[in-house]
């Protein structure tokens, strides 16, 4: 198996990418292609790869910066690491490639922690504006993801809204509800964020604008809670002693809220398995992102999604 990684994607590139790739190659027994400036990557990889693990470099002369505008950068920097990596994937050099047809809009899917496990939220940023038929496909794709990756039977699919009642939600939510009910998924209606974190749904469907705000707000609240608890524990001798007693519980909560435990968000519905990491990704996040990609390939996630979309299109034609 081969995984292709943009080695110039994090804020602190390429150290996290190289370290995470070496850990993943060692633990998972896979080949990894690092895409980026070879003259920068090669000496670092050589110094760190003492075990001669199958981690290699594919040169990409251009580097995308945060200030670059996507459309302009595509023309001015055609050999950026992301573009070169996607060309490698398209040519079949990565084992995550399959043809995807029938998907109207690719969507970003993120794994959120819940009280009793995980749920997938789709979309978290790829589509700020959506239509009801997009929501149906998001529900189908998310449902297949929960079945294959979470091992859920008949995953519960819900739409994120400002209330559980049928009359709640904006016009998109109201217009989507009838066709979500008629789709071949276990649709349970609307949920609020509190139901999300209680674990009352396995798949949460929303537009990318709403999902991105949910993601960033959740990350910010998680960091705030962790910082406040750490400061309070260190404030007095009494709280320091108490902190030792609750340390195991606090460690579990911190791990659950840590984005690096998930690694990256999946862009589902494109012609391959594509993962998009956080700019602040460290080597742990890179490792977990590669591990998730490895799991998705082994689970044949792309094949299952393609089959579900084909069945949806077939059902439409028969009506």
Could you walk me through the main structural features you see in this protein, from its secondary elements to its overall organization?
It is a single chain. The chain has 319 residues and is an alpha/beta fold. The protein folds into 2 domains: 2-90, no CATH class; 107-318, Isopropylmalate Dehydrogenase (3-Layer(aba) Sandwich), CATH 3.40.718. It has 11 helices and 10 strands. The protein has a 7-stranded mixed beta sheet, sandwiched between helices. Strands 1-2-3 form a 3-stranded parallel beta sheet, sandwiched between helices. Helix 1 crosses helix 2 (38-48) and helix 5 (132-149) crosses helix 11 (301-318). The longest helix is centred in the C-terminal third of the chain and has 26 residues, at 208-233. It is globular.
How are the elements arranged and paired?
Blueprint (H helix, E strand, L loop, with lengths): L1 E5 L8 H14 L2 E6 L1 H11 L6 E5 L10 H7 L4 H10 L16 E8 L2 E6 L9 H18 L6 E5 L10 H12 L3 E6 L1 H6 L4 E3 L2 H26 L3 H21 L6 E5 L5 E4 L5 H16 L2 H18 L1
Parallel strand pairs: 1-2, 2-3, 5-8, 6-7, 6-8
Antiparallel strand pairs: 4-5, 4-9, 9-10
Helix pairs in contact: 1-2, 1-10, 5-6, 5-11, 8-9
